[in-house]
Design goal:
Layout: E1 8-12, E2 15-20, E3 23-26, E4 31-36, E5 39-45, E6 56-59, E7 63-67, E8 69-74, H1 79-82, H2 85-88, H3 104-107, H4 109-115, H5 119-135, E9 138-143, H6 156-169, E10 172-175, E11 178-179, E12 182-186, E13 192-196, H7 202-215, E14 223-225, E15 228-229, H8 237-250, E16 254-258, H9 262-272, H10 276-282, E17 290-294, H11 309-317, E18 321-324, H12 326-331, H13 339-345, E19 348-351, H14 360-375, H15 383-397, E20 414-418, H16 430-436, E21 443-448, E22 451-455, E23 458-459, H17 464-481
Parallel strand pairs: 1-6, 2-7, 8-9, 9-10, 10-14, 11-15, 16-17, 17-18, 18-19
Antiparallel strand pairs: 1-4, 2-3, 4-5, 7-20, 12-13, 20-21, 21-22, 22-23
Helix pairs in contact: 5-6, 5-17, 14-15, 15-16
The chain binds zinc ion.
């Protein structure tokens, strides 16, 4: 279909980060960017752009013009209800104590909160979370859904409703409903138990796969789907092999939670006699369309220097992407060791927020700082690489060379970031500013598929007061139901 009749918009007077020769590059001052319909049609010197009557303009003076952020792992339906409960569960007594059980809440608090959620609570949470994502510059979001037993008992229509909320706010949504064989929890002595669902979780798996096939590509491609076998230790090998077959047949990406805790690593060793990467390889999951959510504990000691040669090679050669979620780790006293080491191995990497806040700038900062901290060197990672992870790195994981970068032919998913502020002055290196100083509150405008959804820091597609009031009401109900 010809787009010649669609209005064209010129973004001018801003500092543009363009995609050139395979990397993000700061363009000279006289550069402009134009989009028409959903696509970028021009980026470069003003002299090369020919105006037509009817063109509109965005004045980007005092703004950085950057690609919309690609946030490759998050959960919108339960995060607002786990705020604080998850991290601070052990900090409720007066006497300070140090524990090594920072993974305990994962097995205790998270399931308890999720059990207390009814569908309407999840939808209230999703609305605020998606709005926050838009507000803070994430334009592509991978919503990982929730597990089988949570409110609604695996009713797939909740997934549909949640995805529609994100689409209604104007985001580009990858919807990834999870399925698994076991659910798990922690016993009083700290041990983790696993219990199989009725029918080994297969009915829910069928529903998720069916949903992924039916919904992929809706809303003119703004809604896409992803296969999401819950966690590497809550699925059986047959489940993972079937996931790979479906992914190949329907060209769907896959994301699995893996490398989340030492307990998970131990279980793979004891059950299958495999390390995490060996097991992913054996089940056929490794590949350029696989995203490993977390990827923190991939060895017994959590240090990538301990990775075997064959494992490193399998990770690199398969072009699998590791999705880092540094803030949620750091908040619980954990650290990825390290993004620098993954880079050295040649692994592909992206970023996600996982939980609150849904501000990917926060995770860029945390990724950079924690990497330098654990490697004890400021040279361990550079800000441009971190920005790449949050943009093109995520897009590549999704098989989307048209996202996460500003170039002619790419989608018009664009963020304007304020630099007319005290903290941004004087203008220096935009990558350093974005990673080490900016946050989502500096986002001024957000455009997705050529449509503006945030202007002057306001999300145009949601009534914030009503959405926040609904979430507060839901939180009261959930709080009364949570049994720990
Ligand atoms: Zn997650």
């Amino acid at each position: 279909m010809s787009t010649a009749h669609l209005p064209r918009t010129l973004i001018e007077h801003g500092t543009i980060i363009a995609w050139q020769d395979g990397r993000h590059t700061v363009l000279p001052d006289d550069s402009v960017l134009a989009f028409q319909g959903s696509d970028i049609v021009y980026i470069g010197p003003r002299a090369g752009w020919h105006k037509l009557p009817g063109d509109t303009h965005i004045d980007a003076r005092g703004r950085l013009v950057i690609p919309g952020l690609v946030n490759t792992h998050l959960h919108v339906t339960d995060t607002p209800f786990t705020r604080g409960r998850l991290e601070e569960a052990a900090n409720t007594t007066e006497a300070p104590k140090l524990t090594t059980t920072n993974y305990g809440p994962l097995y205790q608090v998270l399931p308890a909160v999720r059990h207390a959620l009814e569908p309407e609570d999840q939808l209230a949470a999703a609305k605020c979370a998606f709005a926050e994502l838009a507000r803070t510059g994430s334009t592509t979001v991978v919503e990982m859904g929730y597990d089988f037993e949570v409110g609604g008992h695996g009713d797939i229509t909740i997934t549909e409703d949640v995805a529609e909320i994100g689409i209604g706010i104007g985001l580009r949504v990858y919807s990834a409903p999870r399925y698994r064989k076991y659910h798990y929890g922690a016993g009083p002595a700290g041990g983790v138990w696993y219990e199989a669902y009725p029918n080994d979780g297969r009915p829910r798996m069928r529903d998720c796969i069916d949903y992924c096939i039916r919904y992929n590509g809706r809303h003119e491609g703004r809604l896409r789907t992803m296969l999401a076998p819950g966690q590497i230790d809550t699925c059986d090998p047959a489940m993972l092999r079937e996931t790979r077959e479906v992914a190949n047949a329907h060209r769907l990406p896959i994301q699995i939670h893996a490398g989340q805790s030492p307990k998970e690593f131990e279980r793979l060793r004891s059950e299958y006699g495999r390390t995490t990467i060996e097991y992913l390889k054996d089940t056929g999951l490794l590949g350029p369309d696989l995203l490993i959510g977390h990827g923190q504990v991939m060895t017994a000691d959590g240090n990538l220097d301990s990775l075997g040669k064959d494992e490193a090679q399998a990770l690199r050669d398969s072009a699998t992407t590791v999705v880092h979620l540094p803030w949620v780790k750091a908040r619980r006293g954990g650290v990825i060791n390290s993004i620098h080491k993954y880079r050295k191995l040649g692994a592909r990497q992206s970023l996600g927020t996982d939980t609150f806040p849904f501000d990917l700038f926060n995770d860029m900062r945390m990724a950079a700082v924690m990497c330098r901290f654990v490697e004890r060197s400021p040279e361990a990672i550079d800000c441009r690489y971190i920005f790449h992870m949050a943009t093109a790195g995520g897009a590549d994981a999704l098989g989307r060379p048209d996202l996460g970068r500003l170039a002619a032919g790419c989608k018009a998913d664009i963020v304007l970031l304020r630099t007319d502020t005290f903290k941004a002055a004087p203008a220096h290196d935009p990558f350093v500013f974005m990673v080490l100083a900016a946050n989502g509150e500096d986002v001024d405008q957000v455009i997705v598929e050529g449509r503006r959804i945030v202007d002057r820091g306001q999300v145009l597609t949601v009534d914030p007061e009503a959405a926040i009031a609904k979430l507060n009401e839901a939180s009261q109900r959930v709080g009364a139901r949570v049994a720990l």
